[in-house]
Structure formats: structure tokens, C-alpha cells
Amino acid sequence: FFSMFIRSHVAEPLKQTNLLLIMFDDLRPELSIYGRQHMVTPNFERLAKRSIVFDYAFSQVAVCNPSRDSLLTGLRPDTTGTYNFQQSYWGHLILPTQLSRSGYNTAGVGKILHWDGANKDIWNYYQYDNDWYGYQGREEGFMNSSAMPDKIHPEEWFRDHDFSRKAVQTLENLTKEPKYFMLGVGFKLPHLALHVPHKYYEIYKNKDRMNAWKLSKRELRFPPTTSEISWRCCAGNLDFMREEGALRFNRSVWLGDINVAFTNEMRDELMMGYCAGVSFVDKQVGKLLDVMDRHNLWQNTTVVLTADHGMHNGEKGIWEKWTLFDESLRVPLLISHPQSPFQGQRYHEPVELIDVYATLNELLAAPSDPKKIYKDVKKLPLQGKSLAPVVLGSQLWQQAFPAKIKHYHIPLSRNKSSVATPAVSASGELMPVMDQNFAISQVTRCAQKSKIPKDSPTPPQNQQAGNKRIPRPHWLIWTDCDMGKKDDPLEVSLLGYSLRTPDYKYIAYFHFNRTTWTLRLDQPPYQQELYDHKNETLADFTHREVVNLAMRPTSRILYKV
After folding, report:
1. How open is the CA angle 136-316-447, to the nearest 5 degrees?
2. SS3 for 438?
3. What letter would DSSP give residue 11?
């Protein structure tokens, strides 16, 4: 009886699985599963029922190329040396290459890597992106407005329909092969241009939906207590629709002045186009899920859905990414695994995209021969943490990896600073909580010294108190650094870091030597920011980070700690 009792409590051994990786470009958690009730995204909801939904997942850099490099190498931008478009992943092992060298069939459809191509060492089975960048350029050439519903072209004409068609064909073919597989599918929307089939735009003409995303005037301007270093301009002028995109715009707003706030009319235009794009790609996701259902691939396939970073749609007066605010950094992250006891549950602590590689290394249970995998690259320790204990539960994880150090704990009670209670499996197992509960993200900023106003505050010397407005110029001073240039004595070069915890976000911009690629830690931060996220709910997204607490002398003890 005792031996039978023991066996009944031993988890089934961890099984090897396939991988379906679904990626989006510029998709923030603007989804119904993240509390955005105006969104029509039934297929995201469908996948969420089979997944752990990570409520607070953050990109390492809010730019396509370095974010994807970081995710696919499991290394931070400081290690890859990629902060914008100056380099790529070359010289580092990436996930599809590891799986290809481990006996998997690997296929990529759409945009997975930023600079992709038919490299057999990466995609040994199939690769298809159908001139992603050329298509994007052609779209921008005929846009009648910044957001353009299209009544002329059928859905089949749009590139994301093409990607889903090819992905479905490829997934069907992969199921017939004897090998395990990885299929990466990268969709374009909601990346610019916001060119969408008209019927998806019609969904969001509803006044109730539009009222649900309304912001206050304070939320539509750049925070007056935040330095202009954190501002980023712009995805373009905002060109208003005529006849719902059928005619060329005749009204436009220049977005190059940090002192000019968005209006709700401006934001409505962007949100209707953005949300329509999300609903369109939701339909494409559904086609992949249909194949999963048809072949019962849920029994042997791990599914990961995420995005490279988010996007501002007028919040804080910004239409762009490239910032350290949540709108730019937060992304959806869903992980489905056949043996997870927590399907349909949520994880509420901050996690990072850099965690995905380490997580999949454990979840896939793939064979690993270092001599084959690292034959031409240096083996570096992954810099993200594995979220596999959260997905699998502590019992199965410890059974599968008995020699690994436990880097999580089992919650005993509700965290006083959290608005969420721990998830519980059907058998009563509590979802583990990772010991590391923060996320780190980065951005570069450079400016000509001659253009920086003399009265521009640089804490701690010129820190102002309270909510007093920082004087700022009407022209762009701070831009993204040209990382191909050496240090220039006529410039100020900064590397900004954000530290996001459940309760706060701290931002610091440090002096950075572009010749040696090193931080100048012998100098105090050039600028600091602190934002309150205590007791935050999913509904608070786009409504936070509007008051820089670092401007208050009473807050200095917090960001110094």
C-alpha cells in the first residue's frame, strides 16, 4: 500500500515536445485576455485557456532587432552588443540553430529574426518571409492616412493572411515527418503601416469600445516631471482619415514637439487602426490553432506566443516605441505545455523575454550534444531564468531536473503588495513563484552638448521638487545613439536602464563610452525617474507612469536603495 501511495504521487516523466513559436511585431498586451475589454480577440482567448498567461512580461529593448536578438540568444543587449540596428545575432547561438543541430526540423514563416533568410543552419526544413520589408515599404507608399482601412483589397491580399496560409501548410507537412519540429511564425501587424481590411476597422467604430480606451488630458501629454531624455519622436506625422481611408488625407498634425499633447481624436484614429490590426491577426492565430486541434498536437507540442515589444498609441504624447515606459516594453506572453497542471492560469510577477530561451531549453526536453551545438560559437551561460517551474509545477520540474538549483519558492499566502492570489492546479498544487521578480530593459540616448539647454535638470544637483514642470525646448534633442560611431567629445552618450518590480519602475540614464562599450559608473546617473505601480491591475495599463516620483525629495531614499 505504501509503495502504491508513493507511485501515485510521482509525476509522469517530462516528455520531449515540438515547438510552435508565434511572434508579433509591436504588439503590446492590447488583448481581451489582458483586461482590454474593448478588444475582439477570441483566438487569443482560446489559446489562453490552454496556457499560462504571464501578466507582466517585458522586452529587453523596445526595438525589433535587439529585442529579437536577445530573445533568441537568451543574452542581454550588453552581451550581444545590439541596442538598435547596428549588429545582429552573429557570433551567438540562437534557439532555432540549437534545435536544428539537435535533430529537429526547423521552419520559419514571416518575421522571426529581424534579419532573416534561407540559412539552412537556422531553418533546415523551410523558410518564407515573402519580402517582408519590401511589402512594408510598398504599403507606406500608398497609405492615404496614418491608419488606413482598406475596402479595395480582399483579406487574401494582406501579408499576414499569406503568412498564416504558408504556416498552416508547413505545420501540416511537419506533422507527417518522423522528427520533432520547431515552427516559428512571425506576423507583421500591428506594426506600421496600420493598413487593415476594412471589416476589422468597423468593429472599433463602436462608441462604447472607443470610450473604453479614452485617456485624460494628463495621460495624453508627456509627463511634465519627466526629462525629455525619455521622450521619443515619432512614427510620423499623424494624417487623419478621409472617408474611412478611401481618400487621401487633407488634415495632418506634426508630432515633433514634446510640449504638444495628443487629443482623444488623434488617439482614436491610431487605436482603431491598431486594434483592427490585432483582430485581423487574431483570425490568423485561429487557423494555426485549428491545425493543433485537427492533429491533436496539444499532446506533444509546446506553444509560445509573444511579441518583440509594445507601442505607444498617443499615451504620454508619444506615437512610437523606443522608450522605457510600459506601453513600449510590455508584451503578451503565453506558454502552453502538454504536462502543465496550470493551464488557463495566470502568473502575476514580472518576467522577461530573455527568459524564453532558458525556459524552452527545459520544457522541450530536447537532446543536447554540446559538440554539435557549439561547434562554431562560444558557449555562454544564458542570462535569463527558466520559467519552467511555473509552467510544469515544482513536483515535475524537480523530478525532471534533480541536479538543478531551485530558483523559486512556493507562496504560503497572498503577497501584501500584489493584487493577485497564487494560482492553484486542479490537484491543489500551488504555482511556484520565481525568486527574481523584476525585469530589466534598456535604451540608448545621445545628444549634441551644444543643443542641451543649460537649465536642463540633471539630478541630483538640479533636482526640482514636487510636480513642477521641467522647462523643455520645442525641438528634438535626444536621439538614439549611432552605435557604429566612436565616442564624440561634443556629444553626451547615455545608456538607460529600467528596473521594473511589482510595485515600482526605476529608470536611470548612465554615461556610456561608445568606444569601449562600457558604462561610466564613476559618475552619478545623468537622469533618474521613479514610478509607482503599487496595487496595479490589468485595467491600469496606459494609465500609469505619469508622475515622476524621483522629482520629490521624499522619494530619493527609494531609488537610492
Report:
1. 75
2. coil
3. P
Q: For helices 64-73 and 355-363, give the axis angle rounded to 10 degrees.
A: 30
CA distances from 488 to 183, 374, 458, 522 (A): 44, 37, 20, 19
In terms of DSSP bridges, do strands 491-500 and 433-434 run parallel, antiparallel, or are they unpaired?
unpaired
**Spatial separation of the C-alpha atoms in residues 365 and 471, rounded to whole Å:** 56
Enter the DSSP assignment of 522: T
Alpha carbons 356 and 60: distance in angstroms, whole number: 12
This prediction's pTM:
0.94
Contact in structure between 155 and 197 (CB atoms under 8 Å):
yes
Q: Is 519 within 8 Å of 512 (Cβ atoms)? A: yes
Look at residues 400, 379, 431, 311 and name the one whose alpha carbon lies nearest to residue 11: 400
CA–CA distance from 381 to each of 60, 75, 322, 355, 442 (Å)?
17, 8, 27, 12, 20
Q: Which amino acid is at 336?
A: S
DSSP 280: H
Read out DSSP for 107-175?
Answer: EEEE-SSSS----TTT-SSEEE--SHHHHHHHHHHH-SSSEEEESSS-GGGSHHHHHHHHHHHHHHHHT
- Which of 155, 151, 98, 92 shows the shortest CA–CA distance to 122? 98
Q: Where is 53: in which H helix or E strand?
A: strand 52-58
- C-alpha cell belonging to residue 377: 560559437
Residue 329 three-state SS: helix
* Length of the chain (residues): 561
Backbone CA torsion sign across 59, 60, 65, 69: negative
Please, what is the end-to-end C-alpha distance for the chain in angstroms?
55
Start-end of H helices in 323-393: 326-329, 355-363, 370-373, 388-392
CA 49 to chain CA mean position, Å: 21
Cα separations in angstroms, 157 against 146, 151, 225: 20, 12, 46
As averages over each run of 10 residues, the pLDDT of the chain (561 residues) reads 42 94 98 97 98 98 95 95 80 96 98 86 96 86 95 96 98 98 98 97 95 96 94 90 96 92 96 98 98 98 98 96 98 98 98 98 96 92 98 97 95 57 91 97 94 62 48 77 86 96 97 88 93 95 95 62 42
Pairing mode, if any, of strands 147-150 and 238-239? Answer: unpaired
